[in-house]
Amino acid sequence: MATRTIDQLLEEMTLDEKIGQLNLVTAGQAVTGPIGNGDIDENIRGGRIGGVLNLWGRENIGAAQRLAVEETRLGIPLFFGFDVLHGHKTIFPIPLAEAGLFDPALWERSARAAAMEAAADGLDLTFAPMLDVARDPRWGRIAEGPGEDPLVAAVFAKAKVRGFQGARLSDRNAVAATAKHFCAGGATLAGREYAPVDVSERTLREVYLPPFQAAVASGCAAIMPAFNSVNGVPMTMHRELLTGYLREKLGFAGLFVSDYTAISELVQHGVAGDLVEAAALALAAGVDVDMVSGAYVNGLKEALARGLVALEDINRSVRRVLGFKQDLGLFDDPYRRLAPNDISRREIEELARDVARRAVTLLTNNGVLPLSRGLRRLAVVGPLANARGEMLGPWSAAGAPENCVAILEGLKRALPETEIVFHPGCGVDDDDRSGFEEAIALCAKSGAVALCIGEAANMSGEASSRANPALPGVQRQFAEQVLATGVPTVAVLSSGRPLMVSWLAEKAQAMVATWFLGDQAGAAIAEVLTGGFNPTGRLPVTWPRETGQIPIFHAVRSLGRPFKAADPFTSKYIDLSPEPLFPFGHGLSYAKVELANLRVSPQEFSVTNEIEIMVEVDAKNTGSIPAHETIFLFVHDVVASVARAGMELKDWAKAELAPGETKTIGFRLGKESFEFLDKALETCCEAGEFEILVGFEADRSTALSVRVRSFD
Ligand code: GLC
User: Fold this and answer.
1) Which atom of ligand 1 is closest in space to residue 130's alpha carbon?
2) Whole-number pLDDT of residue 4
3) What per-residue confidence (pLDDT) applies to 3?
4) Measuring CA to CA, which residue among 140, 144, 141 is closest to residue 126?
5) Which ligand 1 atom minimizes the distance to the CA of 127?
């Protein structure tokens, strides 16, 4: 094959062989959708398959590749894809947890590590990064993405694409990245999975498109349209956004890979009368590859005959698929990712541990943490205390529970002098209270309690929306009895989303969000709880008090009657504070850092010239241990031609401070930080007043702020 050009190959291909290249089937080594494709070998031999997902391992992939290369007429190699979202064999923290590092360098390194393991297993493509901005914890897929902020999501996109794809897609250790799910699934109706999305054009452009713009700019090889419709048009047939915006406006030249059976589901959406029409609509929109549905192989020839598609439409997508395989180096060597490849699992595990401990987020602490190493007896109780498999979170790829360090194990290793007693107390999601008594008795006789509660791994991720995202089962009842013992208790939450636990935040002596931290969960959590590592995680999502507040996020547009506790006629609830339990960016540390002396220069600037505003703030470590802080910079456009958000994240910085050290932390704001979409949705930069706010979280009551003014 290497000798022929793509156009020469296209010349030689029959219509069936062309359509076969657009067909991506599941091998079923993992199950990630409602149907399978059965035994695929015969269809590979018949040239009816262009790619395979949910198959990994050099032997498995080698066998399938040999069928394509050696037993088909043209010997066109297959590509192999899999959902490597947060690690392949070594499982890293879920993306929502990793987002809380606010560390693009580590985001890229963890993707590079995952790519090396995936490529070493023969994979060419990952269906990641998932870039859905999400502000609704009822939606299970909030776990898979970078949180609520479009800027964070865009920086995350760039880091992940670079990490997965490396310098060159044809490198043996590179895997193609798939930016998904395009777009706006995070705004799904009522937080319910697969439901319709209705967002304004403004919100689409301000919130949901930026991460994909960043992915395209970073050279992402593929994009996956979302299952959902946006404003009535299913994304799988959304020609304006797929071809009009991504390809024609942004110059995306990669592959559109449908989501699982999404093309055939256009019939369910009520926009296609049958599979043939569904195939035609998707192809016309620009979708190149049909994942699992069989719409292309079973419908495109008929669509051609009915005049619903032109042969050039098919050729265009075939050309893109062949070009994708060429970029992956598969025509030069179809077995390039199947050669033995000794990568250091130990280094990757160390990286997974570092990412995990940095993701641990200390939400409250009355001083009970860090636990004293001299603690005589610690009770480790709760259904997530010794639950290795749950720590892997949703989309645990080729990971294995036996590789995971449970919280109980981690604490035993970290506190060798302490007597550790354990009892699960109850299940994750059942009504069995028979274990309460024994577990409570252990707590009552201990010096402190680590109460390990939360969700099972399969309660978030795809098809896992929760109408009541609280502690499942009888965990609350169990927790309340533990707290009633009066023994100092650290609530350790494992979850794929913010849980509605405002009652627990008030009663526990400390509360820690650990999300799902992967293989090194127990080691990382223990390191933080025992003071071996100063907690640095910060919330990438606003944490609601109650479900009724959802959607809740920091960048809320200004309004006419902002909340004032003392004034009844303001934006509030009569039965609950409108404030979140914890704001975006929240996370405590064992160190004490203060910000002072915010200065901005110049304080007056013209909007017609280039803009460069320097912002500086002094950060001082007033505590006795080294500090690792994340400092956020927000801008508020006080008066503009449209109502602007009260706090818009524009940048963040890290501050490493020795005890007693003061450092000046600097930011640079360019014109893009002051631009926005005017009433006509055109980018503009207006004269007026701006507030520059700097703080540890999205809370203007604690942030430092300075006003600046721009003029025409
Ligand atoms: C699933 C998911 C998508 C995933 C694909 C392949 O339905 O929506 O994120 O990449 O199927 O597993």
Assistant:
1) 9
2) 79
3) 66
4) 144
5) 10
What DSSP letter does each residue of 356-415 carry, written as one string? HHHH-EEEEESS-PSPPTT-SEEEEESTTTT-GGGGG-S--TT--GGGPPPHHHHHHHH-
If one counts every other C-beta atom within 10 angstroms of the C-beta of residue 424, the result is: 20
Q: Would you place residue 401 in the very low, low, confident or very high pLDDT band (cuts 50, 70, 90)?
A: very high
Residue type at position 180: K
pLDDT tens for residues 565-614? 999 999 999 999 999 999 999 999 999 999 999 999 999 999 988 899 99
Please give the Cα distance from 360 to 524 (Å, whole number): 8
Q: How far apart are CA 478 and CA 548, in angstroms?
A: 24
* Greatest C-alpha distance within the chain: 79
H helix intervals, 182-261: 201-203, 210-217, 239
Q: How far apart are CA 258 and CA 278, in angstroms?
A: 12
Q: Is 288 a catalytic residue?
A: no
Q: Ligand 1 centroid to 259 CA: how many Å?
A: 6
Q: Which of 125, 236, 290, 462 to mutate to test the pocket of ligand 1 (most atoms within 8 A of CB)?
A: 462
| Spatial contact of 322 and 21, defined as CB atoms under 8 Å apart | yes
The pick from 29, 32, 236 for probing ligand 1's pocket by mutation, whose C-beta has the most ligand atoms within 8 angstroms, reads 32
What's the 3-state SS for 550-613? CCCCCCCECCCCCCCCCCCCCCCCCCCCCCCCECCCCCECCCCEEEEEEEEECCEEECCCCCEE
pLDDT (tens digit per residue) in 226-248: 999 999 999 999 999 999 999 99
Domains of the chain and any CATH numbers: 351-548 (3.40.50.1700), 593-711 (2.60.40.10)
Instruction: Count CB atoms within 10 A of the CB of residue 479.
Output: 25
pLDDT the model gives residue 410: 98
What is the pTM for the complete model shown?
0.98
Instruction: Name the residue with the closest Cα to ligand 1, atom 11.
Output: 260
- Quick one: which atom of ligand 1 is closest to the CA of 178? 10
DSSP assignment letter at 543: B
Nearest to 238 by CA among 253, 223, 219: 223
Does the pLDDT value for residue 101 go beyond 90?
yes
Q: What CA–CA distance (Å, rounded) separates 47 from 73?
A: 8
How many CB atoms within 10 Å of residue 459?
A: 21
What is the C-alpha to C-alpha distance for residues 494 and 517, in angstroms, rounded to an integer? 8
**Which pLDDT value is given to residue 373?**
87
Q: Cβ < 6 Å from ligand 1: which residues?
A: 32-33, 53, 83, 127, 180, 259-260, 462
**What is the CA(32)–ligand 1 centre distance, in A?**
6
Gap from CA of 191 to ligand 1 centroid (Å): 18
Site to substitute for ligand 1 among 224, 259, 263, 265, most atoms within 8 A of C-beta: 259
pLDDT at position 448 over 60: yes
Residue type, 224: M
Closest-lying ligand 1 atom to the alpha carbon of residue 30:
12
Q: Which atom of ligand 1 is nearest to the CA of 261?
A: 7
- Tell whether the model's pLDDT for residue 427 goes beyond 70: yes
- Identify the residue whose C-alpha is closest to ligand 1 atom 12: 32
User: With pLDDT > 70 as the criterion, what percentage of the chain qualifies?
Assistant: 100
Q: Which of 259, 327, 519, 637 is catalytic?
A: 259
Q: What is the mean pLDDT of residues 613-632?
A: 97
CA distance linking residue 47 with residue 54, whole number of Å: 19
- What is the 462 CA–ligand 1 centroid distance (Å)? 8
Which tens digits make up the pLDDT trace of 36-65?
998 899 999 999 999 999 999 999 999 999
